[in-house]
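Job type: complex structure
Entries:
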Amino acid sequence: MLEKADGARAWDTLERSYRTRLARGAAFATGKTVRAGDIVPFLEAVIEPHDRVCIEGNNQKHADFLAASLAKTSTETIHDLHIVQSNLALPPHLDVFERGTARRLDFCYAGPQGLRMARLVAEGKIEVGAIHTYLELYSRYFCDLTPHVSFVAADAADADGNLYTGPNTEDTPAIVEATAFKSGVLIAQVNRLVDRVPRVDVPGDWVSFVVEAPKPHYIEPIFTRDPAVITEVQVLMAMMVVRGIYEKYGVARLNHGIGFDTAAIELILPTYAEDLGLKGKICRYMSVNPCPTLIPAIESGFVEGIHCAGSELGMEAYTAARSDVFFIGRDGTMRSNRIFCQLAGHYADLFIGSTLQIDLEGNSSTATLSRITGFGGAPNFGSESRGRRHGSEPWLKAGAEQRREGAMPRGRKLVVQMVETFGDGMSPTFVERLDAWELQKTFDMPLPPVMVYGDDLTHLVTEEGIANLLLCDTLEEREQAIRGVAGYTPVGLARDREMVARLREKGAVQYAEDIGVDKRLATRDLLAARSIKDLVAWSGGLYDPPSRFRNW
Amino acid sequence: MLEKADGARAWDTLERSYRTRLARGAAFATGKTVRAGDIVPFLEAVIEPHDRVCIEGNNQKHADFLAASLAKTSTETIHDLHIVQSNLALPPHLDVFERGTARRLDFCYAGPQGLRMARLVAEGKIEVGAIHTYLELYSRYFCDLTPHVSFVAADAADADGNLYTGPNTEDTPAIVEATAFKSGVLIAQVNRLVDRVPRVDVPGDWVSFVVEAPKPHYIEPIFTRDPAVITEVQVLMAMMVVRGIYEKYGVARLNHGIGFDTAAIELILPTYAEDLGLKGKICRYMSVNPCPTLIPAIESGFVEGIHCAGSELGMEAYTAARSDVFFIGRDGTMRSNRIFCQLAGHYADLFIGSTLQIDLEGNSSTATLSRITGFGGAPNFGSESRGRRHGSEPWLKAGAEQRREGAMPRGRKLVVQMVETFGDGMSPTFVERLDAWELQKTFDMPLPPVMVYGDDLTHLVTEEGIANLLLCDTLEEREQAIRGVAGYTPVGLARDREMVARLREKGAVQYAEDIGVDKRLATRDLLAARSIKDLVAWSGGLYDPPSRFRNW
């Protein structure tokens, strides 16, 4: 049955295509450097119809010049592209679909463009492959969604194509590696061309072309939360988290989601948690972006080490001056990397974040009717790490609490959601049925878009108390534990008071007084910083907030 | 409550320590290049007591010269190191503990050194922090186990320290990034110093020192399986996997573990699976090393894309000549990367591997009494990907079959274990209680060392049949489904025949005849290659097996 290989088959079509594209592109470049004014014909020369194209669009950094230029190419030359991109944040990201440059889309997160995307999907202009988490989409770059052409953004490049990303390295290494090592065309837009880059974040070897964009790449400060807006309810919830979860389990390695709820926790570490003697015991290592609200906890010696997925505008000088805490390059500025940060967070002991809706099984979703958003990295952080094997105190404690079938003992990652019982516009956070079910129908998704699944969730924290789902023996108990912290929402009011009392006895429902939290202390006085200006002061003037956050 | 930062505290102790070490090391170097003869005093100059040290020891590639040199340093100068290393495979890896150079150890896999390690642990010479999976340990490099000094291995370096790893890039990027960006000393041993590296795998920027080793670095061909040794029982099991799992669910993206069982599957793709019309439908994208037994499936056009964790000795020319299939650098040779390969496999649709013992809950373990081994990457591949959100046919099918509490529909990764009912020395693979429980006691581990947990497992394949655990409604059914394929082992003989018959009716137990597998075809004739020589022929002479596999 042995057959010999068919000698006639070509096995290097991608490589030969790469060389052809490179030769076509060279007409618009000097060495690797493309003339910005020629960018549209250049793209028409190197991109082919039906290509898979990745446009770097991270949480923060965007290859916006290249994205906008793609939307200007002739649809006769370039059409039916398959865009494989993490974040759709800018109008050109959708323009390419509106005009037919692209047709198919695999992505992670749409945010503000979600409404327009929904319309384009309804009109048949976008065929959505799937909505991914960050780690999943990058993984597929190494499997069935490898880009033929990728656009990345960097701060500087030299003539050899060596790239310097500055602190916002973010997703660049994942995109670059998948593209450059599968004969893909890698095009970098940079803020400036220099003789020598401050450090090499991406070797020039891997980069096909570089273009100096007319304007520095777009960057969004999405991790800045003004302490002035934090409420006393959020302070109370933060106190409950510190005592009822961080102290109880001894959580030293963790990830904080984005939002005011977790910002409140960060700001009471140097006050409330310090008074409890928890320094050196909790919150020692974090996998997060350099959120400005972390500054007081860092300065107090609470948080010892932080690895970042990306950077945050205004935090450049601060992170550079705190090299014992942050990951810093030989040039003295921060290096971020979303892949490693997501992984470190996934295998850490706790994830805590906020959400918009929670159902009676504990499934939570940030999906909103009429718009397609997506999950970002929350499900990677906020899910059980089943591939984990190393023990740690909080992981083993949570595992010992957990009800599970069978005799084999296990550890358990702590996955916590923090919500107020009523959200914006006084709509209840707790619902019998998530809007995600409607969304599934509207957008013909295979499953309702759930951010954190109920069986991944271990704790739910509201202003009323903490539901510890690990201690619930049945789905019915889980439902009542959730109702037991759902306050005056219809879900909360419909609780079975007797069962909630029993759950409270066994610790599956805990109120402030059960864990020694004195509600009278829950004032804004407990916040180590109460304004952006305070954060600047804590940083010794190193934090330089974007002007929209400066109100003094 | 606002306090100002204490201006007196130093925040750059790591960076200052780095500069001091660099200056001390420079005495033994010309530029970045250390003189090989000075390696011992050089290491004594740059390493300090209690440092965390990472010695690159991958599945295959080893920084063996540096490891051996570390074991020669003065224990007065260097002692009490904390080794954070994935694989302990070579005697010097343990010599450093025996002589007191190192004391604490966090690792992934010990393999042949497991016996000696057990002795050193018992003697108190090694304090084991924890046994990790690969992804976990790398993750901790970015959290609480960041190395102060790392040794990596590469094929070539230039005077600036740019490294070329060749196809065995493996773990290097993860180690390098964690070390270089947290003020760690990165030392590379290379096979040769060159004027210009064929491609840059690690920018010189990130590398502190380079040393040309007296001998090329050690490398192990651990993914080579001689088809001559594959049995007809393995062929039968492979046929059942193809029909009962790959065809049923439409598995296109997957990871194969290491071993003869999965090699048998690979070798019947161009014969059995092709006859079933499955080309283009199953096994299209794989996250694996370039196992020689994949050659016929690649040549037949079955497997379209492969991303590799590492390389395999003898496969260099073949992978380079198949750039449409493998990930290849601009220089034309393969690039591997364990992190991305592990991630791609984790988020793919199926993992299949072999194990040594399985209990009645479906927990499996490769742990052996009296030796400490570890898990490697199997648990990362072989666990439910709870952070996954994108749909695919097999994932949704498996999710629809799965029994779960609550109303929220889910997808499910297929996790398959293949075993013969009796293993080496005719000891039964199926046991009431895993040896892992004994090991836990002996080595004082927090949990029994389980490789794949029963609740992550979806299918168990033996020569008797397939147990589909997704379709089991209770733990009792699960137990009987396992007994139902456990053959003549005591566990198999103790089955409840009536319940197994009921499980067979609902598809939770399937025998060859239930899935249209004709046992008479299960002969070695079905193997597309029946020897290493056949593999070489399939490759058109490109595969160049190591001499120990050449018997013609």
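Summary: Chain B touches chain A through 126 residues (CB under 8 Å). The domain at 40-212 of chain B is CATH 3.40.1080.10 (Glutaconate Coenzyme A-transferase).
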